[in-house]
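Quick look at the format.
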Amino acid sequence: MNKSLISRILLSGVLGFLVLLFAAFLANIPRLNAEEGLPLIPALISAEAVLIAIGLCGYGVYALLLKQVIGRMRLEQSRPKSGELPWAHNAEWLRREVTHSSKGAALFLWLFVANWWAVLIFAAQDRGAELANGSLPILLLCLVLVGIGIVSTWTAVRKTVQWLTYGRSVLEIETLPGRPGGVFRGTVKIGFKPKRGRPVFVDLVGFTRHWSEQSYIPHEEERGIGDVRNSVPFLQDEQKVSSNQLRGDGSGTDIPIQFKIPRDVPSSGLVDRDMEVIWKVKVRATTPSGTDFDAEYEIPIYGN
């Protein structure tokens, strides 16, 4: 066991101990408010600060112990085995069907909204009169918190409407894989009809995703894949698919996809330990209901 790993384990243990201390303090805040007279606003601010501290400590444990392990697993998973096709690690590509849905984002937003309004309703029921008669800064803080709740709820409603309206859309891949210098073909199947007379916009986007490599131990030489730093596009091709080109019946619409891929472009996948090449097809459409459809699908582009 090298010194780097020992240092990581020790620092992770310290951060884990801090998480337990913060959790114990967080559990004790209601008692401090009810029995020790801790005012409501400082109690709420303390609770938010402790939650942020717990999140930072948890991220520290991830960065120290799990980051490099996950990075190596990702690298090994995307590296084709002997005799295996380079795109075989992606089950959707093998099925020739890449899906998109807003379900996960909608559920996450509703969990956040429910937690946010639960805290505000508890504060209003417990100290509503005190807050209403409070000073101007306290009233402004309450308005800001309510405003955040309203905006979050509206965002969750819109994302839910997108999910319920469009459900799951599918890109059926015809060209597996797309090759530089060739043509990528496919069909996006959606469960609605775009607004009559409006074109559907389809983009082919290729970009490199660079991964940060930060050392959390002074003078540490070992590096590993960390969090995403930035994405740099190297190709973007937009097409307009007119309503005359769309196919389908009353229950859905098929959007034909066909892009010419330049010869001198990189293949999908990890280039090295800190850079990944990603290709996506993005589809945007206006609907009669007024809720715009916006989806993206990752596609395989590999050279010979």
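Next, a different chain entirely:
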Amino acid sequence: MNKRKTCSAIFVIGSIMILSSLSTGYPSEKEYLFPIQKGGKWGYMRGNGEIVIKPTFDLARPFSEGLAGVVVGEKSGFIDKMGRLVIKPQYDHASPFFEGVATVVSNEKAGFIDSTGRLIINYQFSDATTFFGGFAAVQVKDKYGFIDKTGKFIIKPQFDLAFVFVENLACIVKDGKFGFINKSGQIVIRPEFNHAESFSEGLALVIVGKKFCFIDSSGKIIIKPQFEVDEKNGIGSFSDGLARVMIDNKWGFINKSGQVAIKPQFDLALDFKESVAAVRVGQRLGFIDKSGQMVIQPQFGYTESFENGLARVAKELQFKASTGSLPIYDGLGYIDKKGKYVFGPVKQD
């Protein structure tokens, strides 16, 4: 599984599932700090481009609930907004904090810590999501169930795969088919789909036969099957009222009536966020608004969605042998919605 939001937006690192990002995003921060890379090291800046935490880390992740995950050497820990290591780097992997808890991995087993770094649920799971909606999905032997923050199983292990609760429903897999359960563990949408993604803005993307469609929380089909499932066609979940769709290798967007809102014309498209979406024309990325108008011309080799008014962009993204799997963002910077740099671009050494 990759960063694409299959059911719960979790991705696998080794054998451990760590939450990447949900449609709800990170919890809001009173003062949002943005990760930056300079001289091959990571630090943080304010929204005006002022560096407030000097780049000293090998990797830095967004702040969540006042703490940010950082990597020093090959271990993950957490800093506060003063840049102090409040939980020393000791984990092989660590998720962001959600609901006061972070999923951490050591020796290929997952456990859970609180914001002081205290291990509140021992390392024991082969796979684990973060807590979301009061529950975390975990794997015991070859089955998945759900625990609460005491580590007690609320829904016993019984599924082939399970994902976090989103909009009070969790996507599960049983006998190779995708369905949904509620927080009592009752199946409310029976497993009958070849694929499904978590609910987003009241709708879930599923595959019926060989076509994509969307259902509501009762399982009723709201957008009928009309998009083919093959290498030339694809679709994403709804975000900001629109869902990206690929038809004959070109990406555009549909609305919640299933009508094409922005005709397929791009070589790649990311979800809309803060009313703009990144799209690729040829080998360069830019941004469009909801009318499909290009508001920031294609010029980047890498970009992320806008977050708190800024988007992280780079001229190129590289993975060098000398840095292992850690990314090098050449020409890294942050732009505002007019395309103006508030930080960078920084050429990496």
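Confidence is low (pLDDT under 50) at residues 1-24.

See the schema section for token definitions.
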